[in-house]
Amino acid sequence: MGSVVKKAYRVLSGIWLGTIVFFSLIIAPQIFKVLPRFEAAKLQNHLFPFYYSVGIICGLGMLLYAFFKDQKKIIWIGVALALALMGLTTLTPLIKDAFLSQSASIKWLHPTAVGLNLAMLFCVFKSI
User: Fold this and answer.
1) Domain limits, the chain
2) What distance in Å separates the CA atoms of residue 58 and residue 53, rounded to the nearest whole number?
3) pLDDT tens for each residue of 32-91
4) Which residues, including other chains, have CB under 8 Å from residue 43's CB and lie 6 or more apart?
């Protein structure tokens, strides 16, 4: 049973890590290359809640494992999970509002989102 649980942890961490890398380095840049800026931003606004939700689901499963089996990973998973929650509940709505209102705040929101995702990537990588 222990090896099955450990494999589940590895699958969850792989899904989360893969989602971050694939979305940030491949999907997002390609969307802005292929679509007009307005349509690309609209699509990104639709995708980000799913992106962060994947992280939250994987993070909760990983946190559960770490709580019982490997407590030294809790801090990294907890920080990554907090960042995913912040991205979903705070950053995504701010970006959507800035996009819809054509606000200049998008100029600082995009680098903030990039930083949040890099930090989340680092924490998930450290939890492996």
Assistant:
1) 2-126
2) 8
3) 899 998 888 889 889 999 999 999 999 999 999 999 888 899 999 999 999 999 999 999
4) 31, 35
- Cα–Cα distance, 87 to 102 (Å, whole number): 20
Alpha carbon distance 113, 98 (integer Å): 13
SS3 call for 127: coil
Task: Flag whether pLDDT at 19 surpasses 80.
Answer: yes
Pull the structure tokens for residue 123: 């924490």
Q: What share of the chain is helix, strand, coil (3-state, %, to 5)?
A: 90, 0, 10
104-118: per-residue pLDDT in tens?
788 898 899 999 999
Residue that has been written with the tokens 């994987």 in this structure: 58
Q: SS3 for 79-104, per residue? A: HHHHHHHHHHHHHHHHHHHHHHHCCC
The structure tokens 């899904």 sit at 15
